[in-house]
């Protein structure tokens, strides 16, 4: 069975972990000094590298080359050549136990973990437990885990990963080293999927890659999974319309075009564009959401042009220039338009006729007002 792209191109070293510079620096320094904590808590959005970082800790902690080569140890990275590193990459290392807390969330599962903690490693120096989606554990399960986190055996490292940090009890988080993972920037995701496409000989347009990266919302895994899905759809080059069809959303150019028509109060052409998009089967609620985000950024640029420096990380240069142009024609009246779109979006999600709230909101705001 073919390996999915996000697994095939999973980072093999800390340096490959993009977008998490602070986390990487701290973990590499700990690795250089062989000062591993007994417990870690990784929190952050999906697809940002939490489980990958946890597996890298397991690799460097048990890397056989690091244990015999002091000079290599100073690099703070796994060798990816020894039996321990290879067995982790291949998913057959007996001293790395991964637990999905979403489906193993009860006290019985944690009691089994506590029994397993007492057993010495099968082959290597450390026994590493990764508890994914840790916020899904029950209150009783968390209580059962407390003592193990407080006083684990010297041969054990426990790593909790969660997308919802606020659901982790303070009694648990206070017993761990906490690391917060942030969403990746668009240019980082775009760069990686472009590299994957080249290596896999996937023919794809730049516009299609841009929409994949933007729709991932900071998640490398989501972008790689979507690219994988699109690559199996056709033997021809993947174009923007292919991505739009799969996602049910439109690209930046269409969003910016509709936004410009809205800002210029060109009511007939706005309604025509929305009808065309509806007829093509696109998700109108998603379109409205994208318009809201676009106009919100245009408004921010209007009232604080210095935000351009921050938006540079999230947009391609030509896209940012388009928003800057639109910010010059944005007025305070358009704030009411933005509010109306937000109201329409909340209605559209539960309506059998999503185009109606959108059209009504636009007509109310764009009809001739003297």
From TrEMBL:
GO molecular function list: ATP binding; DNA binding; DNA-directed DNA polymerase activity; metal ion binding
A family per Pfam: DNA_pol3_gamma3
UniProt keyword annotation of Zinc present: yes
Stated name of the protein: DNA polymerase III subunit gamma/tau
Family annotation (SMART domains): AAA
Cellular component terms (Gene Ontology): DNA polymerase III complex
Superkingdom classification of source: Bacteria
Coiled coil, from the record: none
Matches recorded under NCBIfam families: dnaX_nterm, PRK05563.1
The keyword Transferase appears for this protein: yes
Record GO biological process: DNA-templated DNA replication
EC number, as in UniProt: 2.7.7.7
InterPro entries recorded: AAA+_ATPase, DNA_pol3_clamp-load_cplx_C, DNA_pol_III_gamma-3, DNA_pol_III_sug/sutau_N, DNA_Rep/Repair_Clamp_Loader, HLD_clamp_pol_III_gamma_tau, P-loop_NTPase
Family per record: Belongs to the DnaX/STICHEL family.
Function description: DNA polymerase III is a complex, multichain enzyme responsible for most of the replicative synthesis in bacteria. This DNA polymerase also exhibits 3' to 5' exonuclease activity.
Enzymatic reactions: DNA(n) + a 2'-deoxyribonucleoside 5'-triphosphate = DNA(n+1) + diphosphate
Complex and partners: DNA polymerase III contains a core (composed of alpha, epsilon and theta chains) that associates with a tau subunit. This core dimerizes to form the POLIII' complex. PolIII' associates with the gamma complex (composed of gamma, delta, delta', psi and chi chains) and with the beta chain to form the complete DNA polymerase III complex.
Residue ranges constituting the AAA+ ATPase domain according to the UniProt record: 36-190
SUPFAM superfamilies, sorted: P-loop containing nucleoside triphosphate hydrolases, post-AAA+ oligomerization domain-like
Keywords: ATP-binding, DNA replication, DNA-directed DNA polymerase, Metal-binding, Nucleotide-binding, Nucleotidyltransferase, Transferase, Zinc
Organism: Candidatus Jorgensenbacteria bacterium CG11_big_fil_rev_8_21_14_0_20_38_23
């Amino acid at each position: 069975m073919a390996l999915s792209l996000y697994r095939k191109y999973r980072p093999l070293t800390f340096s490959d972990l993009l977008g998490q510079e602070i986390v990487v620096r701290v973990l590499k320094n700990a690795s250089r000094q062989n000062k591993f904590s007994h417990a870690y808590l990784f929190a952050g959005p999906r697809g940002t590298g939490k489980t990958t970082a946890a597996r890298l800790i397991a690799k460097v902690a048990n890397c056989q080359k690091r244990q015999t080569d002091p000079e290599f140890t100073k690099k703070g990275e796994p060798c990816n050549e020894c039996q321990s590193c290879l067995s982790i990459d291949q998913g057959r290392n007996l001293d790395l136990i991964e637990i999905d807390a979403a489906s193993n969330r009860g006290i019985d599962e944690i009691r089994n973990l506590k029994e397993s903690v007492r057993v010495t490693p099968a082959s290597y120096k450390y026994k590493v437990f990764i508890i994914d989606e840790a916020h899904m554990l029950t209150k009783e399960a968390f209580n059962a885990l407390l003592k193990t986190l407080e006083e684990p055996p010297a041969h054990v490292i426990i790593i909790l990963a969660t997308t919802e940090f606020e659901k982790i009890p303070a009694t648990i988080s206070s017993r761990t080293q906490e690391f917060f993972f942030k969403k990746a920037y668009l240019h980082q995701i775009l760069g990686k999927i472009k590299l994957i496409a080249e290596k896999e000989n996937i023919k794809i347009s730049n516009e299609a890659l841009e929409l994949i990266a933007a729709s991932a919302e900071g998640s490398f895994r989501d972008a790689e999974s979507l690219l994988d899905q699109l690559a199996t759809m056709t033997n021809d080059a993947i174009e923007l319309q292919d991505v739009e069809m799969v996602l049910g959303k439109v690209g930046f150019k269409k969003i910016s075009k509709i936004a410009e028509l809205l800002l210029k109060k060109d009511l007939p052409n706005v309604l025509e564009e929305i009808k065309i998009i509806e007829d093509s089967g696109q998700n109108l609620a998603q379109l409205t959401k994208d318009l809201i985000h676009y106009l919100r950024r245009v408004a921010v640029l209007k009232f604080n042009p210095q935000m351009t420096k921050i938006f540079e990380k999230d947009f391609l240069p030509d896209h940012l220039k388009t928003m800057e142009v639109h910010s010059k024609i944005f007025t305070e009246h358009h704030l009411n338009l933005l509010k109306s779109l937000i109201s329409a979006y909340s209605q559209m999600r539960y309506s059998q006729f999503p185009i109606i709230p959108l059209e009504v909101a636009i007509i109310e705001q764009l009809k001739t007002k003297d």
